[in-house]
Amino acid sequence: MMKKKVVLITGGTSGVGLAIAKSFAEIPTEIVLVGRNRARAIAAVQEIQSLSPSSDVSYLLGDLADPTENKRLATTFMTTHSRLDILFNSAGNIPKTASNNIALNLQSHYWLTHNLASTLEKSDDPRVFIITGMPLAIQLGPVYEHQFNLVDRGLWLLTHKTLLVTILAHELKSWHIKVNALFPGGVQSDLLPWTKNLGNTEVAIASKLATQSRYQTITGQFFDDKGNLVRLNNRKYGLKRAKSVLKRYLPLKTDLN
Ligand SMILES: NC(=O)c1ccc[n+]([C@@H]2O[C@H](COP(=O)([O-])OP(=O)(O)OC[C@H]3O[C@@H](n4cnc5c(N)ncnc54)[C@H](OP(=O)(O)O)[C@@H]3O)[C@@H](O)[C@H]2O)c1
After folding, report:
1. Measured from the CB, is residue 16 less than 6 Å from ligand 1?
2. b/e map of 78-100 (b: 16 or more CB within 10 Å)?
3. Cβ atoms of 228 and 210 closer than 8 Å
4. Which sequence spans correspond to the domains of the chain?
5. Ligand 1, atom 42, residue with closest C-alpha
6. Residue 33's beta-bridge partner residues?
7. Which CATH superfamily is domain 5-246 in?
8. 183 phi and psi, to 5 degrees?
9. What atom in ligand 1 is closest to the CA of residue 188?
10. Contact status, residue 224 vs residue 183, Cβ threshold 8 Å
11. pLDDT digits (tens, 9 = 90+) for 50-92
12. In which residue ranges of the chain is pLDDT below 50?
């Protein structure tokens, strides 16, 4: 019998994360959703169970943008699970401040992935995904550090998440943990007024990228919503650049020598 995959999905209580959780309906999995709001988490569990009554799904609550809660949540998960096969970092927002952007849309993914690395390592095929935005904006947008307005903060999070994938893939390579970015397409969510009105509630590619053997060895890359690799400029998003930009935000473990 196929071993159940253990899947943790941050932001799994809404929008993209919930759509990702639903993409596992046909695959034997144990899914743990993460969010802050209990009522939302219960509703998400019920929605998944109504679609797939035999699904094994639960939730954990915590503010991932708080390093202490981020650590506590990872510890709670590890006390109840002996391994983690798949981690989707989909918790995110449209940040009102630079500090919230840095904490939630960048640091929380780095902290949680490292906080869970020892349990990911116990999987025979650990895969981590960072949910990100439009490929064209990431390919064309400049990498800069100022975050004066909403546009700056949006571009900052897209470019810095892409650099984060480069760093995490490198840092976790010797642990055999693969780390990639995923653009989920436009998905109905609470993110913005216009995403509430989107018709799409599926990210069908998510479970395929997370489980199919043809994606097993790919790391440090960027997938679009069709599962195609998005080409990135290595000078812009390579390891050297990633380290020099992200060292002011993250306690990097990367040794470039
Ligand atoms: N929707 C789209 O079309 C689209 C397209 C491309 C990329 N994305 C990206 O997808 C990600 C998720 O957005 P979404 O559209 O799914 O928005 P959403 O419907 O607002 O969902 C956000 C999720 O993140 C959780 N969350 C937010 N802050 C958190 C925190 N501090 N700690 C723990 N959990 C937190 C929320 O739960 P609680 O509020 O209960 O904490 C919720 O489950 C974002 O990074 C967004 O940029 C979305």
Report:
1. yes
2. beebebbbbbbbbbbeebeeeee
3. no
4. 5-246
5. 11
6. 9, 59
7. NAD(P)-binding Rossmann-like Domain (3.40.50.720)
8. -90, 115
9. 1
10. yes
11. 999 989 999 999 999 999 999 999 999 999 999 999 999 999 9
12. 256-257
